[in-house]
Each structure stands twice: as C-alpha cells, then as structure tokens.
Amino acid sequence: MITFDMDFFGPFHVSTGVPSEGMDSPIDLTCPLPSTTLKGLMRAEAVERLGIKGRLVDEIFGRATT
C-alpha cells in the first residue's frame, strides 16, 4: 500500500457524473477524490506535459479505453 499527502492550492471539484434532485453535479462525500480521477489526471500529465508516448503510457497505466 502507498500512502501520501496531497496539497491543494485552489478549489477542486470532482462530481459523480450523475445529477440528483436539485443538483447538476453532486459530489460523493464518502469518496470526494476517486482513484480513477487521479489515474486519469496522472495519465494525461504523462502524455501532455512529460511527452511520454502511447505504448509506455499503456504499460504504466493500462490500456486506455474510449
């Protein structure tokens, strides 16, 4: 198991993607920052900011689904 701390230097919002009564983009208070969100952000940064190419990114993060 890996444990780490995260510091946010501005607001963040990760919604559930399913609207509920009176709310367009509710959050899940039991899991406000899902691991899939972090994985997607890290994958995007690896490609866009670090310039890591597709095959290596797939080896690190698993094959992308569209």
List the keywords:
66 residues, mainly alpha
Brief description of this entry?
With 66 residues, the protein is mainly alpha-helical. It is built from two helices and no strands.
Fold and architecture overview:
- By secondary structure, the chain is mainly α.
- Helices cover 33% and strands 0% of the residues.
- The protein has two helices and no strands.
- The chain is extended, with a radius of gyration of 15 Å.
Ends: how far apart?
29 Å
The quaternary organization reads as single chain
Low-confidence stretches: none
Percent helix range: 25-40%
Determine the structural class based on helices, strands and strand pairing.
mainly alpha
> DSSP strand (E) fraction?
under 5%
Shape assignment: extended
Mean pLDDT: 85
Radius of gyration based on Cα positions: 15 Å
Largest sheet: none
In total, the number of strands is: 0
List the helices and strands and how they pair.
Layout: H1 35-48, H2 54-61
